[in-house]
Amino acid sequence: MQTATLQGERLLVLEDEPLIAIDVQATLEREGARVLLAHTMQEALLHANSGALSAGVLDFRVGGEDAEPVCETLTRREVPFIFFTGLSGALPERWAAMPIVPKPARAETIIGALKFVLSPETREILVRSQCDEDHRKFAQLERAISEGEERIQRMRRCIARLASAGADTSAGERVVATMMAVLENMRAHRDSSTNLVSKLAR
Questions:
Q1: Which of 4, 110, 114, 200 is the most buried (most CB within 10 A)?
Q2: Three-class SS string for 172-194?
Q3: Mind listing the pLDDT tens digit for each residue in 84-127?
C-alpha cells in the first residue's frame, strides 16, 4: 500500500498570522498541494463553501472569533480537517476526533497530521465521527462503543503504516489517545446507566 501523499490535494488554510500563514502555505505547496489561504473567517467560509476541498488546516481563534462556523461547514461537506493552534487545551469537545497540532510545530508534524486525516483508513472514520450524532445517543451507546473500538484499531494500523514510511505520526497518536479516553467515558456511562436501570428494576 502506498503512503498517503499531499500531491494534488486542495487544502484550506485558515491562519491570521501572516508569517505563520506563509510558512504553512510554503510547506504544503512543497508537498504538491494546492493551498487556499484565508486570513479571516469570511475568507475561510467562502473557500469552505465553494469548490472541492480535500482537507483543512485551521487555527481555532482568528481575529477574536472561533472557527466553529468553518468547522461546521467542512463537517457538513464531509471534509476532514486538523487544528493548528495555540489553544489545544481549550477546544470544544465537539471536535475531539480531529487532530490537533499545537503551535509551534515542525513541518513534518503538520504534514503527518494531514496524511493521517486523508488516509483511506481514517478519513471516513473521522468524518463520520463528526457527522453521526446517533453515536451520542444513549439508545445506541453499545453500538457506538463497539464501532469506536474498531475505529481505534484501524487508526492504529494507519499510524503504524505511516510511521514505517517515516511520517511524523504524533498528531494521529494524540487523536487515538483522545478517542480512547472518550471510549472509556462511554463505557463508564454505559456501566453506570446499566446499574441504575438494574436498581430501578428491583
A1: 114
A2: HHHHHHHHHHHHHHHHHHHHHHH
A3: 998 766 788 778 788 999 999 999 999 999 999 999 888 888 88
Instruction: Name the CATH superfamily, with its identifier, for domain 10-201.
Output: Response regulator (3.40.50.2300)
Q: 11 is written with which cell numbers?
A: 487544502
Q: What is the edge-to-edge ordering of all strands in the sheet holding 81-85?
A: 34-38, 10-14, 55-58, 81-85, 100-102
The pLDDT tens digits for 159-188 are: 999 999 999 999 999 999 988 988 888 888
Q: Give yes or no for a contact between 127 and 137, defined as CB atoms under 8 angstroms apart.
A: no
Query: What distance, in Å, lies between the first and last C-alpha atoms of the chain?
Result: 55
Residue where the block lists cell 482537507? 55
pLDDT at residue 197 greater than cutoff 60: no
Domains in the chain: boundaries: 10-201
Q: DSSP letter at 4?
A: P
Three-state SS at 149: helix
Task: State the DSSP H helix or E strand holding residue 10, giving kind and residue range, or none if neither.
Answer: strand 10-14
- 103, 86 contact by CB (below 8 A): yes
pTM (two decimals):
0.70
Give the C-alpha distances (Å, rounded to integers) separating 193 from 88, 100, 140, 182: 31, 31, 13, 16
